[in-house]
């Protein structure tokens, strides 16, 4: 069982992790920050990332046959890294989103996804 | 008069531990100068948020609350019993506190009273500094205004429109819950308590629904002037009838929000004045 800060420490322990943010999707607030994110404007990043997730959800919902959508994780690769977003359903509000940016050269996407999945099971049990 | 912010900042400098009560509006809990818990009359309690999802039983929460003491805090008991993971508890406290604080900073007409020593039964789970709380509240206020720049819906019953003014609608899960829960009598605050969702999240969902045209708003959109009351014959009677029209509720069942210093009220008064000037 993990606390929020421990969770972030473990996310940063994923090979190739550059920075990580825990985001409250509803309000777009940065709940906790790890790694290099401490240097950027996390408030803006968190708001932007939750907006990215929202837009993707809206877009995919209209293209999915049933019209509903549930994202397990989302990977976006840009020239400054792989960006992984994993929304976690919580009992009261949320979702809570784990965001991690991975180094293009030093990371293994499959491993990172696997680690995030295991982590989220220990952070939140649904 | 001292504002809540200044009182809190003073307590933070003194590294005070105890409760700051704002009359009926709610209470801040401080531990070593930092806010560790807050509750507001306008937001659902943490207990309500926890038990609304049915995964956590009201019994387990009550038990932890009763057996919580100095050496073993309620939060630790809940985690030890396997009711919640530490992460869930922390996130729940975080949501509940930020939700309550949003409404506490706006609360007026009370005298803050500090009682040293008092602690919340959960114990400190997350520490907030006052400037961080103020910044987050400002951010949330901007977010609400970006969704729909009028506070008039915040205290009125939520009434979904019968027919949707478009071909297709995409909703978030919370927007769905709000629409399903809306019975044309419940205000956003009532819905938050009923759904067990933070009041701010519900407020945001309501404003987003208003922007999408899915719930009923007053005849005109924000910023657009509403139709003025029709001019009637007769001299001085006009003033009285205009005033009467202005205080009448917008719909047959919708009660007016309580009187505030709210800009929408001010706008109404300005329009009234203009109407009266046009009459003379």
Automatic annotation (TrEMBL), chain A:
Q: Which domain of life is it from?
A: Bacteria
Protein's UniProt name: Dynein regulation protein LC7
Q: Which organism is it from?
A: Streptosporangium minutum
TrEMBL record, chain B:
Q: Where is the composition biased (Pro residues)?
A: 249-260
One Pfam family name is: DUF4388
Indicate the segments forming the PatA-like N-terminal domain, all copies.
Answer: 5-142
Q: Where is this region: Disordered?
A: 219-265
Q: Which InterPro entries match?
A: PatA-like_N (IPR025497)
Q: Which domain of life is it from?
A: Bacteria
Q: What is this protein called?
A: PatA-like N-terminal domain-containing protein
Q: Which organism is it from?
A: Streptosporangium minutum
